[in-house]
Amino acid sequence: MPDLRLLSHFAREIFSRQRPQRIPEPVLLMDDPAQVEAFARAGREDGVIGQIYLLHSVQLCGLIRPGDRVIDLACGPATQLAQVARLNPQASFLGIDLAPAMLADARRHIAAQGLANVELAAGDMTDLRGIADASADVVMSTFALHHLPDTAALARCFGEIRRVLKPGGRVYLADFGRLRRDATMRFMSHRFADLQGPLFTTDFHNSLRAAFSLEDYRAAFPTLGPGLRLIPSPLAPFMVIIRSPAVQRVPQSARAEMRRLWQALPRFQRMDFEELRHAYKTRLHFIPGIR
User: Fold this and answer.
1) Could you give all domains of the chain from N- to C-terminal order, each with its CATH number?
2) 82-134 residue pLDDT tens
3) How far apart are alpha carbons 242 and 227 in whole angstroms?
4) At 167, is the secondary structure helix, strand, or coil?
């Protein structure tokens, strides 16, 4: 059954005229060990937002071909990166992040997963000078853009993505969109507060307040180049996805692993995954099922 409280908040979002000011996170560089640990724990496959990472992995597997070079911008503790790399063992991955504590946690996670197709490096997603022009087949990033300080930095990031992509390269970017009502932000961040802990809840709330608006994304969007889609979540832009069209069906080997991951989720997360997948079904966007 759909969460009626969530639908009620989103209905009020539609008619609200509030436009809260964007408030960048107090710590734009998430490098506090406790913050890193809380963020990593929530996103792991048995974490409270594991279904969201799986939703992104399903879509990324339609963009990544064997032999591709994939760059993950602001990879954090490599939660998304490790999952996608495991699902695509014939592609190579480079994860970059500015925060030493995040990279340290990412290295531990990659080693624990036994992944030989992933490299990690320090780097700024607005200045990829260490990466050659037209050298990447895919650029991905999840839940990182809101760490950028302003719309100028967002445009620089998009410009760098376009520079490093090969002709015909693919993009998958997903992050929060700024909601209009503070009450909705608080509801979303505290929805599973009893499961995710106070530190992650606070960081989640700060992230929603720091998110770019749909108008901000639309203004910077042309910098990425042609052929991409900007897709906000239905009813309210809680999540915004910028992506290339799929170039393949999800391989059977990846589907089997995705099914295992989905079945391992608690029931409420499986329901949340399916609700999000069906909510995103539009003429321009389709997320494959994995059951």
Assistant:
1) 4-279 (3.40.50.150)
2) 999 999 999 999 999 999 989 999 999 999 999 999 999 999 999 999 999 99
3) 11
4) strand
